[in-house]
Specification:
By secondary structure, the protein is an alpha+beta fold. The chain folds into two domains: about 5-105, Nucleic acid-binding proteins (OB fold (Dihydrolipoamide Acetyltransferase, E2P)), CATH 2.40.50; about 125-440, BirA Bifunctional Protein, domain 2. It has twelve helices and 16 strands. It has helices spanning about 5-10, 115-120, 130-150, 200-210, 245-270, 270-280, 285-295, 300-310, 325-335, 390-395, 405-415, 425-435; strands spanning about 20-30, 35-40, 50-55, 70-80, 90-100, 155, 160-165, 175, 195, 215-220, 235-245, 295-300, 340-350, 365-370, 375-385, 420-425. Strands 6-10-11-16-15-14-13-12 form an eight-stranded mixed beta sheet, with helices on both faces. Helix 3 crosses helix 5 (about 245-270), helix 3 packs across helix 12 and helix 5 (about 245-270) runs antiparallel to helix 7. The mean pLDDT is about 95.
């Protein structure tokens, strides 16, 4: 049975003289004729396992065929390592080459590669230290997200990828069709216009109005022609929804979620976080601990605008009441003014989605955004409009068809309840935890304008 390299290098019990079968890809090789040092990695941990092959073993001639990138199976004995960087190494007894690797054409030679170049070989980039660490962190964050909600009694709901309506009302949707033209949708597969979903929120609200506490976690799509380091065309969203709840309950849950996944990461991903702290963002671990230990600042949108206007700071985008906050405004609030995560609430109704609950001032809605240092907005949420007449009015105002949302309106007709929820962009969360600069480097196969390779 295969022994994972992580189990050897991070063993908490003595394993000296244990016989193991280890598999992996060669990272480095030093062949000194009478013995060889082979470093392999199977992706289970950041560190490589050193294998020492004595020239007297029967398979030693195979060492000459080994190159960086080749895959191997090595059977041997675990011994204490004289090297300072690891406790154990393996003394090889047999070496089996599973897959040779052309040393001349292999793109991942032992040298530095730009992240931009690595995106062009996304099928191989998981073998690099950075991408391996990012994907292990992404896996850990996904598990932590599920743990957070499951421990609180939430039900995990799988919502549709294909939809017939626009959740956000912004129109930035990918059309799904089996036709060569768009003249008569009655002849299309679904007999109507359909799209890739931009959010699972409206669907999951149906289950909040029956099961009380629910969440969805899945892929979403937006046809926004944006080429920034913060946007993707395909990305994943975590979207909880809680019944019998208001905006304050929503903010409490969202803050608890952020702190939970940070704490989990610090406890369970120490090795990878130390790598990110050293090579990606100096001070990352201190930043995460600061967020974990800080009570989040809460201010209204109106207060945020006043702070920005009084700052005398030159922003690229103008600040005015009624305009959405930009990333530079959000980062100023969290990094320079409050120096900690900030929750901005009660936004102008004119810049928010139709489903957000109108406040008594008839100008703002019960919406909230959590802003964090380095990223800006990481969570957006709101109390939902549970009053049927007001929701119908808002649909008309935004020129959205009531017929398309008939079922959503019926939730307000039959046993409506106050409810609230939020959305977490999973890639932005991963950026925040890892310190990675570009969102295209925290998803296995990035999709953005002009790029859908692999």
């Amino acid at each position: 049975m295969r022994t994972k390299i992580k189990a050897i290098l991070h063993s908490k019990s003595p394993i000296e003289n244990t016989k193991v079968d280890v598999y992996g890809w060669v990272r480095t090789l030093r062949n000194q004729k009478n013995f060889a040092f082979i470093e392999i990695n199977d992706g289970s941990t950041l560190a490589n396992l050193q294998v020492v092959a004595d020239g007297k073993i029967a398979d030693f001639n195979k060492v000459e065929k080994l190159t960086t990138g080749a895959s191997v199976k090595i059977t041997g004995k675990v011994v204490k390592s004289p090297a300072a960087k690891q406790s154990y190494e393996v003394q090889a007894e047999t070496i089996q080459i599973l897959g040779e690797c052309d040393a001349i054409t292999y793109p991942l030679q032992k040298k530095g590669h730009s992240f931009e170049f690595l995106r062009s070989i996304a099928h191989l980039r998981p073998r690099t230290n950075t991408q391996g660490a990012v994907m292990r962190m992404r896996n850990s964050l996904a598990f932590a997200a599920h743990k957070f909600f499951q421990e609180r009694g939430f039900n995990y709901i799988q919502t549709p990828i294909i939809t017939g309506f626009d959740c956000e009302g912004a129109g930035e949707m990918f059309k799904v069709t089996t036709m060569d033209d768009f003249k008569d949708f009655s002849k299309d597969f679904f007999k109507k216009p359909t799209f890739l979903t931009v959010s699972g929120q409206l669907n999951v609200e149906c289950f909040a109005c029956a099961l009380s506490d629910v969440y969805t976690f899945g892929p979403t799509f937006r046809a926004e022609n944006s080429n920034t380091a913060r946007h993707l065309a395909e990305f994943w969203m975590i979207e909880p929804e809680i019944a019998f709840a208001d905006i304050n309950d929503d903010m409490e849950l969202a803050e608890s979620f952020i702190k939970y996944v940070i704490k989990d990461s610090l406890q369970n991903n120490e090795e990878d976080l130390e790598f990110f702290d050293k090579f990606i963002e100096k001070g990352l671990i201190a930043r995460l601990k600061h967020v974990l230990e800080s009570p989040f600042q809460r201010i209204s949108y109106t207060e945020a605008v006043e702070i920005l206007l009084k700052s005398n700071k030159k922003f690229e985008f103008p600040v005015a009441w009624g305009k959405d906050l930009q990333s530079e405004h959000e980062r100023f609030l969290t990094e320079e003014y409050f120096k900690k995560p900030t929750i901005v609430n009660n936004y102008p109704e004119i810049i928010k989605a139709f489903y957000m609950r109108r406040n008594d001032d008839n100008k703002t809605v019960a919406a909230m955004d959590i802003l964090v240092p380095k990223i800006g907005e990481i969570i957006g949420g709101s109390q939902r409009e549970e009053r049927l007449p007001i929701l119908e009015e808002k649909l008309e105002k935004m020129k959205l068809s009531k017929e398309d949302y008939w079922w959503y309106l019926e939730l307000r007709k039959y046993g409506s309840v106050p409810h609230a929820g939020f959305g977490v962009g999973f890639e932005r969360l991963t950026q925040f935890i890892t310190g990675m600069e570009n969102i295209r480097d925290v998803i296995p196969f990035p999709r953005f304008p002009g790029h859908a390779t692999f």
